[in-house]
Amino acid sequence: MSTARNSRTRLLTTAATGALAVLSLTAFSNGPDVRSEGAATNAAVSASAATSPAVGSSHHEAKHALAGSQPAMNTHTTKTLAASGNGRTGTGSNAVTCQGSNTKTVAAPLNRPVNHMLLTVTNTGSRTCYLYNYPAVSFGEAQSVPPAIEASRPQAVVTLKPGESGYASMNLSATDGSGSHGRTEKSLAVYFLGASGNESVGTAAHPALPAKGVYIDDSLKVTYWQQSLDDAVQW
Q: Which of 4, 20, 21, 79 is 20 to 30 Å from 124 by CA-CA measure?
């Protein structure tokens, strides 16, 4: 009886030991698989992260390409402005030379400087016009054109959009009375020079003078055309 109980105890112990062994083997064999799945998951995450820079690079490249096209647009804009003439809107290949038929000219005596007269030319046409060089003026029956004050030459051609005005002043006579051949004239013709400055173009303007006329002498001089009134009256 005792022998039989002992034998049964040994069998149960042996069976339990075997079961533990099986469980240990099973646990051991599952261990590497769990680690492998974790590694695979990490690898998948890494692979996903690795693709992110590619997407980011594409976005960066697209922005870079857009930014790269900007200078080209700026260059085109710059060229367009350059072609428009002196950077002033509305000028360019459609511009013409200012002359009597597309402008209105007014002659007005100035209180200061004394013995000076101001010429104001306003663009009455529908296209931008250029005032080249200086006014070629002729008082009365004069056969010659008075000289221009070289120091008054502007840095750029005076450009008038429709409705804009340009200016020039005339030194009519010497303030100290030293001028010769002084006389009073009651008519004035203003001729417009071309880009070359060698001859007049188009039609002349005939602005009205004061009823009593203006006194001139051989010291008569004119300024170059100016873009602003202030520049015209400082000579």
A: 79
Q: How far apart are CA 137 and CA 225, in angstroms?
A: 12
Query: Rounded to the nearest 5°, which phi and psi values hold at 68?
Result: -65, -25
Question: pLDDT per residue over 112-165, tens digit each?
Answer: 889 999 999 999 999 999 999 999 999 999 888 999 999 999 999 999 999 999
What three-state secondary structure class fits 50?
A: helix
Query: Pick from 133, 123, 130: which is nearest to 102 by CA?
Result: 123
Sign of dihedral through CA atoms 148, 153, 157, 160? negative
How far apart, in whole angstroms, are the C-alpha atoms of residue 175 and residue 122?
Answer: 29
CA–CA distance from 96 to each of 29, 179, 200 (Å)?
96, 38, 14
Is residue 172 a contact partner of residue 215, using CB atoms and an 8 Å limit?
Answer: yes
E strand or H helix that includes residue 64: helix 2-83
Tokens read off for 102: 């597309």
pTM: 0.61
Q: What are phi and psi of 210, to 5 degrees?
A: -55, 150
Question: Which tens digit of pLDDT belongs to each residue from 164-187?
Answer: 999 999 999 998 888 899 999 999
d(CA 62, CA 108): 63
Do 97 and 194 touch, CB atoms closer than 8 A? yes
One-letter amino acid of 9: T
**How far is the C-alpha of 207 from the C-alpha of 204, rounded, in Å?**
10
